């Protein structure tokens, strides 16, 4: 099972993870990662996330295909939100299912590293004083994390 | 060809998309960036550090030396910050 969605509305992480295993008995491990919006010590009122419609879904699909080629995955869900997201809200979900935990953990980590650096999304911070801080800069750490996986 | 812009590239140029008709001789992504940079202040500002600009042809990431040949849509944007 493969779920790829780009949406403005929130998602139910537990329900998505449950769906991966529904009706089958060969899955031994499901890893779920949820990325949340931080308030940056109270400074941040919201994130505004822009995306490239069409390419965002396609790029996540390619990243998922790479993970499926590398590990014996039995299910993957990848969901990324766009629009205005308040602190405490969910931004991104990656869930991976496999027979054993090693593949599920590794695939989830790779998927997140690639979602951050390859999927066309851009974040902008809106501060609690009402000002728009400007676009979040890409981090060298994120690029390095994605580089670990090659390709 | 259709051009689409995102994040601060879009803001600096002042529009999210447009149709481009570059002159013959503009054959690669990098050459298109160089030509666009000459099309006004907003473009010059958007592409002032050309090396940081990311591009996609028909919704696939490409490098600046990629040929434009046959592409219907080109996108320019800053490095991604999703997740």
Describe the structure.
- The complex is a heterodimer of chains A (151) and B (83).
- In chain A, 35% of the residues are buried.
- Chain A starts with a strand and ends with a helix.
- Chain A has a single domain, classed as Aldehyde Oxidoreductase, domain 3.
- Helix content of chain A is 33%, strand content 36%.
- The mean pLDDT of chain A is 95.
- In chain A, strand 7 (121-127) and strand 8 form a beta hairpin.
- Chain A has a four-stranded mixed β-sheet with strand order 1-4-6-2, sandwiched between helices. In chain A, strands 5-3-7-8 form a four-stranded antiparallel β-sheet, with no helix packed on it.
- Chain A is α+β, with helices and mostly antiparallel strands.
- Chain A has four helices and eight strands; from the N terminus they run E-H-E-E-H-E-E-E-H-E-E-H.
- Chain B is α+β, with helices and mostly antiparallel strands and 83 residues long.
- Chain B has a single domain (2-77), classed as Beta-grasp domain (Ubiquitin-like (UB roll)), CATH 3.10.20.30.
- Helix content of chain B is 25%, strand content 23%.
- Chain B contains three helices and five strands.
- Chain B has a five-stranded mixed β-sheet with strand order 2-1-5-3-4.
- In chain B, a hairpin with a 2-residue loop joins strand 3 and strand 4 (60-62).
- Chain B is globular.
- The interface between A and B is medium-sized, with 30 and 16 residues.
